[in-house]
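Newbie here. two chains, one complex. Structure please?
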Amino acid sequence: MIDWRAVVMREARATGAADLDDHTAEELATHLEDLYQAARARGAVDAEARGEALRALRESRLAMLKESRPNLHRTRGLTRVSTWQSLRSGLRQFRTHRGFALLAVLVLGLGTGASAVVYTLVDGVVLRPLPYGEPDRLVSLWDTNVQRAVTHEPLSPVNFMDYRALPVFMDAAAWWRPDVNLTDPGLDPVRVRAIETGANLFEVLRVRPQIGPGFPVGGPHFGGDLIAVISDRLWRTRYGANPGVIGKPLVFSGASYTIVGVMPPRFDFPGEIDVWQRSRWDFHQHSRGAHFMEAVARLAPGVSAEQAATALTTLAARLEKDFPSTNRAWGTRLVPLLDEQLGYYRPALIVLFGAVGLLMVISCLNVASLLLTRALSREREMAVRTALGASPWHLVAQLLAEGTVLSLAGAAAGLVAATFALPVIVAHTPVPIPRLAEAAINTRVLGFIFASAMVTTLVFGLVPALATVRRTLTTDLKSGDRAVSRASRTLYHALVAGEVALAGALLVLSILLVRTVQQMTEVPTGVGNPAVMTASVQLSGRPDTDWAGVAADHGAILDRLRQQAGVRRAGASNFLPLEAGWRGSFGIEGQPPARESEAPQAQHFSVTDGYFESIGARLVAGRTFTERDTATSTPVVVVNELFARRYLAAGQATTAVLTTHMTQVGPLGRNLAAGGRFEVVGVVADVKNMPLGQANEPAVFFDARQFPFRTMFLTVEAADGPAALAALRETLRAVAPGIPLTDAQTWDQRFRARTAEPRMLMTVLLFFGALAAILATLGVYGLFSWMVALRRRELAIRVTLGARPRAIGILVLRHGALLAAAGLAVGWILVRASERALSRVLFSVSAGDVGALTAAGVLLLAACLGACVPAAIRAMRVSPVDGLRAE
Amino acid sequence: MSPRTAIDEAKKGSAEILILALVERRSLHGYEIGRQIEDQSAGTLRFTLASLYATLYRMEDRGWLRSRWVEKPGQRRRCHYRITDEGRKILAAQRADWSRFIAALGLVAGVKPA
């Protein structure tokens, strides 16, 4: 028996057609055997018959078979490649290249995991509708003041009643926030967040209590009978979830309320509220100049937010004309409720989502470029596959299958990472992001992950596939040609340049946030003693009319506090820095009385002696308050520098007399100085009395004994934090045993909390930026190593022709610098293009900040050059002999 | 042009119509196709192995033929070639072309159909 196939292959090898495919070899072998058998059948002996067959073979030019049909599915019937086979082959590929597969899955898992977490947060916090009836019809209302450049001020209750009457609103509810001490008999006193609200709040939101009737539907919105609704949280923690709580008394602010409802779980509108008390007073009976209420409104059917805004603007303009003294420069705007509730987090999460999207793309590009280099180095393999009968489609299917395997593995890794990371992130977020606790991986998130896996599959599979297939079709496979087509090289460069550009954008972004946090923390607050301990105390038990008693109680607390061990200074104020005081108009004696409509306004604070000293505010002129300033002594005030500069003549700082008509602030505080004449006795340096990013306002400080408030913040300077805290606790236990100490923090902690949101965004973005830079650096490293390996021959020739190694090193580095510069330029354009979205998370820094661009540029350049160095060194070591060896 | 090359040139152009005509009625394997062309032309038309299979592959690539491996007990498996619908169209067109060509040859060069 003759092995005709072996005969064919031998002949093929001898005539330069060694890679004859299976099918052809088989067919030729059959043909030869038929020739042989036919000869034998004619009577030829074995040797003759064999000679005849061999002659037929030798007179053929086998090489022409190879050229005759490069595109034919030669393997049909022999090896039909199924999707499943491709996938299995893909798996096999990665089993034999574990390191590569692990790296790719890791990079992808990182990208997918980070995107999945951020998408989950965006989905849970931003995209999910609020848990109220038709939540997208709800808007919150805020006053604006062009003169003061404020856009987010509370409303006056009287103005609110006018807004509410507009037909563009179906209904509107307003409230204010008097925190209360619950002092029910038989239970521990506790400070809770409460609002005093119009009774229609729950109707506006369309939420019903889970237990009890709630506030009477349809009104009245205020009333003398005291009723309150409590939160599910309070009901469970304080009343043991007892359904019999309805009708029970709830004692706070020296009065007994009746509990008429328990709200459903997780309902805490407008934010961490435990007690909703129905208003005791008519919103009409107040001042148009007092801005302290918040409001939510439901748009009337068919009315758009824009129409409502227009109606509000028209109304505000009319009110401004009718009541110039109180309404001049004031306007009103509305904000969709969801935006309002999310505040900073909506823009922050959107920026974060954009950033993580960039990171995801970078990791995809990174893996795509990895696959591309691998595909280019696998050209021989692809050539063999083609020779064995694989069509271009088979090759594409093969590479797509490998891409699928990779991206599915990456997506799975990302999903696992996200599942584990999410609870940790939710539990350890340093700031209270609204609705964060409800963020969970759901079908939408899974869909997101799946979709991103699909996209990455296409990118991973197609990019190298197209590069390879193009090449396979155009290259002479036998030649061992090492040149790589221009197109592949350009593609690789583009992938890496893309990575560098996106990393550049992320770096610029994260540095902008660093600058933001820097700017915020550098804002002068006027607080010279950041270690001062602050805590809020609300006196209760005194009847509403006994204001001298309230002042005396506070005095007693301070006296006791100052006697505690370690306490150096102690004082109190009704507002802490960064918060605005009560705004009111005033006059200066001796200056021409302003028309009522043009009376100047200033913030009013009540502080005790020792307050300025304890927080470290600097005295500029005159004196601060002392123990000799009492309810019966000469009424005095201290003003801030801005006030003195704006309203007092030089030298008048400690001689002027200020007049005010402010006799009380609701149920909170009362001006005890009859006559309303106050001598200005001192000027203190400005203590920041507006939120960060807004300009200070003139301020008047009253003595808390002459203008007492029920709720005060105690400020204690002691040897250290624990000593201050112990002193506060000991004092309250001794002097006011029923009163809880709330919210004890050093000023530094409070200030950090104020900047916690941008700080967190900054941290996350820095992390993303660093990750992106590392990935891009890896990409650059890979590109240059590959380039140098590829151009070994060219470099060797250059060396032979006398190029100095230094010049070659510089050539490589210049290439790297160019890549970094191009990347940075594109990155910067990206950042500038998203300027609008960024403006809401940046503070005192513009998206075009040159400092941030420079810093990102230096970082990126350093990273890129660093990544080129190994390749540059290798290039410099190329010897002329290498040129020959490379062939 | 010598008479020898005339036939060579004609063979190149005619190989496809010959093969199509052979597989028009039933599928054949490569050896049968080569054999039948040689036999029916009384040895005038002969293809080398390589040119025969190169032609077959080219025709399959163009979609005129379809190949299929057939295994029979006790025999080597063979690749059978069958005409496709596309192939039939080409065959019809080529037959018409060749008829016109031969008629023209007859008129101009005095060549007569055998």
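Moderator note: Residues 85-109 of chain B form the longest helix (25 residues). Chain B touches chain A through 23 residues (CB under 8 Å). Thread marked as resolved.
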